[in-house]
Amino acid sequence: MNRIYLDWNATAPVLPEAREAMVEALSGVPGNASSVHHEGQIARTVVERARRAVAKAVNAPAQAVVLTGGATESNNQVLRHHVRVTDEPFVICTAVEHPSVIEVVRDLEQEGVRCAIWPVDAKGRLDLGWLEAKLDEGATLVSVMWANNEIGNVYPIAEIAELVHDKGATLHVDGTQALGRIPVDFNGADIDYMTLSFHKMGGPKGIGAIVLREGIKIEAILAGGHQERGRRPGTENVPAAAGLVGAMAALGEQGDAWREALQRKRALFLEALTEQAPGLELRGDLEHTLPNTLNVAFEGIDGEDFLLAADLEGVSASSGSACTAGSLEPSHVVLAMGFEHDDARRSVRFSFGPATPDEDLMEAARRVGAIVERLSALMV
């Protein structure tokens, strides 16, 4: 029985272009990118190529890109930097943010910082009127993800940016799930801070970025090094930077084709799922969604029970963010949409990539149907 991997929103298989570049760097680039000798300067070249590659991919100047260890680190740095340098900070984030944002905001609130959580409706949508009222109350930073990792909702970032800036506040956008799946235009959307990880779209794990609007500064949250112009200390991850160059090259060459393939595959998979599991419940905003993500629920079936059965049948899926895996609590995203505890526990997320074969999606739908039928029979 072949295994079918449908958990790309947790992490994606590494692109061949990224893997080959990393292997080459591991074997051929021994230097520290901060060293002045020949080997160090070769390593420095790799890091700077990665910076330029990210900038080109998101339409930003290269000097705006700070390389980090991932989006979790980047999110922490942006939020805590803002609080550190702002008089009377007032931080807002949505109720469906990644844990690396919403948990930081809750920590800041415990530390005495004024904070507010932007609610969503039953489809996970945001009310801009609510945000406008909070901005009128003096909000200084708004943190909102471009695309949600659990339900797939895509949010109107350019519209939010216009509202935030009209009120004199600052906008932070976590673009991790959007990159490689929908167009990401940093300058076009008028974002102040954008944070990224690259392993969701086939880049290497262990490298991320903060992208800064011109004139915006950010301070390091750690001490002990001058790297990244003093904004992120620590020895640069040269093999990951090399892999990032390869991944961004693949995105530039194939991004449009990836998006078209994902849209077609989503329609194919959804049709097959609906046929194999009648009564399927779809969750999220189906009109504004990522082309690779489906959040579903099966009547009367607990999500964890389903996932364990699916794993035994060779289908890998999830019930929410990999950063909260192992928790007995249901997804905070689905709870924020107004679902009761037991109802929220029924949520299952399927996410795939442009390289997922059509036949795998069809076979996964068949296996899902059989699992639902078997688990439903046990409940009778």
TrEMBL record:
<dbReference type="InterPro" id="IPR015422">
    <property type="entry name" value="PyrdxlP-dep_Trfase_small"/>
</dbReference>
<dbReference type="InterPro" id="IPR015424">
    <property type="entry name" value="PyrdxlP-dep_Trfase"/>
</dbReference>
<dbReference type="GO" id="GO:0031071">
    <property type="term" value="F:cysteine desulfurase activity"/>
</dbReference>
<keyword id="KW-0411">Iron-sulfur</keyword>
<dbReference type="InterPro" id="IPR016454">
    <property type="entry name" value="Cysteine_dSase"/>
</dbReference>
<comment type="similarity">
    <text>Belongs to the class-V pyridoxal-phosphate-dependent aminotransferase family. NifS/IscS subfamily.</text>
</comment>
<dbReference type="Pfam" id="PF00266">
    <property type="entry name" value="Aminotran_5"/>
</dbReference>
<keyword id="KW-0663">Pyridoxal phosphate</keyword>
<dbReference type="InterPro" id="IPR000192">
    <property type="entry name" value="Aminotrans_V_dom"/>
</dbReference>
<keyword id="KW-0479">Metal-binding</keyword>
<keyword id="KW-0408">Iron</keyword>
<keyword id="KW-0808">Transferase</keyword>
<dbReference type="InterPro" id="IPR015421">
    <property type="entry name" value="PyrdxlP-dep_Trfase_major"/>
</dbReference>
<dbReference type="GO" id="GO:0051536">
    <property type="term" value="F:iron-sulfur cluster binding"/>
</dbReference>
<dbReference type="GO" id="GO:0046872">
    <property type="term" value="F:metal ion binding"/>
</dbReference>
<protein>
    <submittedName>
        <fullName>Cysteine desulfurase</fullName>
    </submittedName>
</protein>
<feature type="domain" description="Aminotransferase class V">
    <location>
        <begin position="4"/>
        <end position="361"/>
    </location>
</feature>
